Amino acid sequence: MFKNILIVTIIPVAIGFFCNMFYGHKEGFKKTQAVCPAFSVLGLACIVGGVVAAVHDQLLQEGLLFFLGVFAVVLCHNSLGYLTGYLVGKLFHFGKAKNRTISIEVGMQNAGLATVLAGKFFIATCPLAVIPCAVSCAWHSISGTILASWFAWRDKKNEL
Question: What is the pLDDT of residues 20-47, one digit of tens each?
Answer without folding.
Answer: 999 999 999 989 888 888 888 888 888 8
